[in-house]
TrEMBL record:
<protein>
    <submittedName>
        <fullName>Endonuclease-reverse transcriptase</fullName>
    </submittedName>
</protein>
<keyword id="KW-0255">Endonuclease</keyword>
<dbReference type="GO" id="GO:0004519">
    <property type="term" value="F:endonuclease activity"/>
</dbReference>
<keyword id="KW-0378">Hydrolase</keyword>
<keyword id="KW-0540">Nuclease</keyword>
Length: 254
């Protein structure tokens, strides 16, 4: 449940509670949490109650497997996914580092069992330069262990890719492809996601450098202004061509 202020949220909670009880359903207060998403360093406390009992306010929460934080950023979720991917690879290391299996086969297994864990909900991430470096570092970490290349050999990433027969990294490109496809899907359908994506917040932005936005990622990947992307995305085939052409150009520049 989303609301702009504490009073509206309390009214919404009360309405949901009343309608649920008409159907014999009840809200479990132990499984219900509140969160204030804000840019402020000191997050305000709110007092939402159900049957007179205060709902716990948290700084982060896992919703449908996705880690949501009160600062509204993706940094902690991406880093958490990197850790989960590395743990999965370590558990399967005997198989994924076995040289009796071709590297191509092990690569497909890695994409199936390791990449799939890391890429969960990647369409919603807002990426900055630091996170992109972390993502590329994860991919190279996987390749070096699959090829059993020790850090003591002091081989550059380019040399590692040449040794395993790859021309460039793919993980970051996969994320950007999914984000563009997701943007096109949202743009062509009437939904809550579209209202959130295209909505505007009243007031002035804070002083300082503007924070990187999800739509800003779309602009950077397509090298187009967002208003142009809005028009192109309405045509499914034209948007698919845009995705393919932009990612091909990116691959050529690597």
């Amino acid at each position: 449940m989303l609301a702009e202020n504490e009073d509206d949220l309390q009214k919404l909670v009360n309405t949901v509670k009343e309608e649920n009880e008409k159907c014999g359903l009840f809200i479990n207060i132990r499984k219900t949490k509140t969160m204030v998403i804000s840019r402020e360093k000191v997050i305000p406390q709110i007092d939402i109650k159900i049957d007179g009992e205060r709902v716990e306010q948290v700084a982060n929460f896992t919703y449908l497997g996705h880690w949501i934080t009160e600062d509204g950023r993706s940094d902690q979720e991406v880093k958490r996914r990197i850790g989960m991917a590395k743990n999965t690879f370590s558990r399967m290391s005997k198989l994924l580092t076995n040289r009796r299996i071709s590297f191509a086969t092990r690569s497909r297994l890695t994409k199936c069992y390791v990449w799939s864990i890391f890429l969960y909900a990647c369409e919603t991430w807002t990426l900055n330069a630091s996170l992109e470096r972390n993502i590329e570092a994860l991919e190279m970490w996987l390749y070096r262990r699959m090829a059993r290349i020790s850090w003591k050999e002091k081989k550059k990433n380019k040399e590692v890719l040449e040794e395993i027969g790859w021309k460039h990294t793919e993980l970051l490109k996969t994320i950007k492809t999914r984000q563009l496809a997701y943007y096109g899907h949202i743009r062509r359908h009437q939904s809550l996601q579209k209202s959130i994506m295209e909505g505007k917040i009243n007031g002035k932005r804070q002083r300082g450098r503007k924070r990187k936005s999800w739509l800003g990622n779309i602009e950077e990947t397509t090298t187009r202004r967002i208003n142009e992307c809005c028009e192109v995305a309405l045509n499914r085939e034209e948007w698919r061509h845009t995705i393919a052409s932009n990612l091909w150009q990116e691959t050529e520049s690597l």
